[in-house]
Design brief:
Layout (H helix, E strand, L loop, with lengths): L56 H4 L14 E4 H9 L11 H7 L9 E4 L9 E4 L1 E2 L1 H9 L3 E4 L4
Parallel strand pairs: 1-2, 2-4, 3-5
Length: 155
């Protein structure tokens, strides 16, 4: 089988009906919209939410939640990603690793409000890393490799 021989199953694709093209087409004159009235006109979309004067469902339900306008946004990085950067020679395991060094090495695109260290992956290098937040698994992995995690500010 070749790519140019691929095709849909019979009946999987159906041609769209061209409405309003004469009586013989079966969808002429009113084009399947019935007769006159608001729903027969174009541009009426909000009518589906109208419930005959009764308070609409979306207005009956209570408003919930709140979006904090100045909420902090953090960048997440896995220890496996840091290890691959060290293996590639982009990061020096000997020096202190923080948001600025991770951006400089190309591990992160931007630091935003800080870095969150996550524990996915395997870490072999001894690191001294400074982040805003670190999961328990990430801390354990770094300390197991002989390094240390400094959690500063944030949250």
């Amino acid at each position: 089988m070749k790519l140019n021989e691929l095709s849909d199953n019979k009946g999987a694709r159906k041609n769209r009906m061209r409405v309003g093209r004469g009586i013989g087409s079966g969808k002429g004159k009113t084009a399947g919209r019935g007769v006159k009235g608001q729903k027969a006109r174009s541009g009426v979309s909000g009518i589906r939410a109208y419930e005959g004067g009764q308070m609409p469902l979306y207005m009956r339900l209570p408003k919930r939640g709140f979006n904090k306008p100045n909420r902090s946004s953090f960048v997440e990085v896995n220890i496996g990603r840091i290890q691959s950067a060290i293996d590639a020679g982009k990061l020096d395991a000997g020096q202190k690793i923080n948001a600025a060094t991770l951006v400089e090495a190309g591990v992160l695109r931007r630091a935003k409000d800080g870095v969150r260290l996550l524990g996915t992956g395997e870490l072999k290098a001894k690191l001294d890393i400074e982040v805003v937040y670190a999961t328990a698994g990430a801390k354990a992995a770094v300390e197991k490799a002989g390094g240390s995690v400094t959690v500063k500010g944030g949250e």
